[in-house]
Amino acid sequence: MAESFTLGCYWGPRFADPEESASTTARCLQRLGELNPILGTWYQKVNRPSDSLKYPVEIDAAHIRPLLNCDDSLGCSLSLWNGQQAGVDFYLACGGTSPWVHNVLTLNFPSPEEEAGNLHSPSIMRSAMEIAVHEWKPDQAALFTYPMQEPQLETNGPHVGWMTYLNGSIPTTMLSDDEYVTEPFSTGTMITIGDDPFAVTPEMTVRVARKVLPANWT
After folding, report:
1. CB of 23 within 8 A of CB of 67?
2. For 197, which of 2, 33, 72, 108 is 20 to 30 Å away at the CA?
C-alpha cells in the first residue's frame, strides 16, 4: 500500500504578531484551495471529527485571527481539518521566539487510496510545496512519507524527501546528478528526486541525503 505524504516546513525563532500570522495563514490557505477543492474547505480541529464540522473556517485574516492560540514566546498555533473523506490535516505554529520550540507548518495528505481528484499528482504536490515555502520562508521543508523519514531520524536534520527545500545556497559539488535535480527557489534551493513521488524509496532519500547533507552523517 502506498504511504501518505506529509508536507513539512520548519524554521527557527522568528517573531510575527498575530495579525501578520493570520494574514499569512489566510493567504497560504487561499492559494492551496486554488490547487484542488479538497484544500478549499477547512474546519477547526477538535477531538471528534463530527464535532469539527460544527466549526467551519472562513479563509480570511479577520476570521482566522480569533482562532489563533497565541503565547508571547511560543507564537501562535492553529489546527484545521478539511472535513472530507479524503482527510487533510493542517497544523501551524508560527511567530515563536523561544529557542526551544521551533516554528512549523505541516500538511498531511490523505492516503493515495482515497478519492482525491488530482491532489496526488506530482504537479499539485509540487505546487503545494512551493506555496508553503513562498509564504512561510522556512529554513527547511520537505515532502516525505514516514518510511522516507524513518532512516534519517537519527541524523541532525534536515531530512530529505521526494522534494526538499534548504534555505540558502548549497555547494556546487552537491548540485544535480543522475538521481536528483537541484534548482534555485525563493531564497534557497529545491531538491527533487525523480518525477514520481510514489516511486521514491527510503533508500533513495538516504542516498541523496548523504550527498547533499554529508555533515549530518558523520
Report:
1. no
2. 33
